[in-house]
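Regression check, zinc ion case 536:
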Amino acid sequence: MDRAAIIGVGMTKIEANKSRETFADMAWEAVNKALDDAGMTIADIDNVVTTSSDFWDGRTISCMAVGDASGAADKNISCIEGDGTYGAFYGYMRALSGSYKTTLVTGHSKGSQGVSSLLTNAAFDPIYERGLGMDMISACAMQANAYMNKTGVTPEQAALVSVKNHGNALKNPVAQLPMKISVGDVMKSEMIADPLRKLDCSPISDGCCAVVIAHEAVAEKFKKRPIWVRGLAFRTDAFFFGDRDLARSNALAAAAQDAYKMAGITDPKKEIDLIELYDAFTYQELLWLEEMGFAEYGKATELLAQGQFDIDGALPVNASGGLMAGHPVIAAGLYRIAEIVLQLRGEAGAHQVKKAKTGLAHGVNGLCGQSHCVWILDQER
Amino acid sequence: MSDIFKGIEPLIYESKINVPYSWWAGDTASKFFINLRDEKKIIAPRCGSCGKVFLPPRKVCPACFTENTEWVSVSDEGTLVSYSVARRKLASIPADKKLPVVWGLVKLDGADTAILHFLDDVDPGDVKIGMRVKAVFAEQRTGGIRDISHFKPVR
Ligand SMILES: [Zn+2]
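Current build output:
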């Protein structure tokens, strides 16, 4: 099989309210940062994939509206609705198709401009469910209850995810919510939907991320050391919650196994050095780690309490601060990929982890993790 | 990114997306809703291959990829699979619901999959996964999911 690598990344600062910038302005910034990072000009890019959500953007075919600012004029531009990891998956397939050498992938959204509760309520089935008024937070609270009931994990134990990730964000200049907080602070914060308190939830955010994916034929012709895609897979669970085991994520377990197999990884705990995952809520970091095989089911909290997932721990998880420190929907998974690329290059600055040869980036699509995308990235081919 | 915008006040264009839209319920949901409305009965389609009974009703068995052709009656009682309690007035919550709002994922006896609905007539602190609940039908029924008013604990 042909190989492809990520050769450029660009991230806007994640902010609560980018009132000075439109969607296209954010794309312009992220795309130019990615091109500068790669040592490329827009002429070096042969096709563009933009990732966005019409409902979050408040317009139809939202992804087409950022093409100009993304340098897509006269190029092949394609659009993905979903998390940025899925846009990048498509970009990777384009690289492997033999028809494209350099694909620019962007993902953007602005949570600040809409009403998150109404937008995520609209993800429920309109005939059977939407009128009941659940949204992302109340849905994930339902999953958190199922998970905690099955494992015995407590809200206090999960709160440590928030403490760690907000703390890591103090070292990441693009993070929106760097905070030194305690478990007590999390447990005192407003209860939104039991057991999820305000500090268990990722914030509403604005941001855009861009990455350049190159076919192996050209991956080494630009400025930066290519970060190779070794494994990549996604899997999707049933749409209705009642069809799934909400306390588990079978789709993530399967996606991770597929990605490990492609990468030739037999012992992920030993072979993966760091992880950036989709911690939209505190319990999710624990559940996702367990389903990917980094802890026994219900036991990730013990490793967390031991400091194993800290920046200087045995397996750093969300050294960037993760989604807890900034959650631009759609772009969030692409930020995870960009963060792993910076880490594997040794360019992550204050939140650089010590050992970083092989990293895992993870994105989610759908309510309560219906679909998961897992990337294994590596310094070496 | 550039100095030429220094001191410019960022303006906001206020708008609202409000597009009338009709979702045709389709044959499967219509049959289910008509039974709720006219008979206060909960029915569900069953897969002819694997025998699974699906709520909410749908035309196709996702496991067998075959069309469900048979309908069965399921109980109005079942078991709580999980739940959620909203303490904040989330924008998505219907105007007629008072805080705290409790939702349940309920697996009715005779069904293989669980359905989302409200839980009520219960203190949120007393809600437990595995508890037995029963459907309470709405007095005014119009042929929709809220023809079931809510589920309440079986005492
Ligand atoms: Zn079947």
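Comparison notes: Residues B 47, 49-50, 52, 61, 63-64 surround zinc ion (CB under 6 Å). The CA atoms of residues 5 and 11 of chain B lie 13 Å apart. No diff flagged against the previous build.
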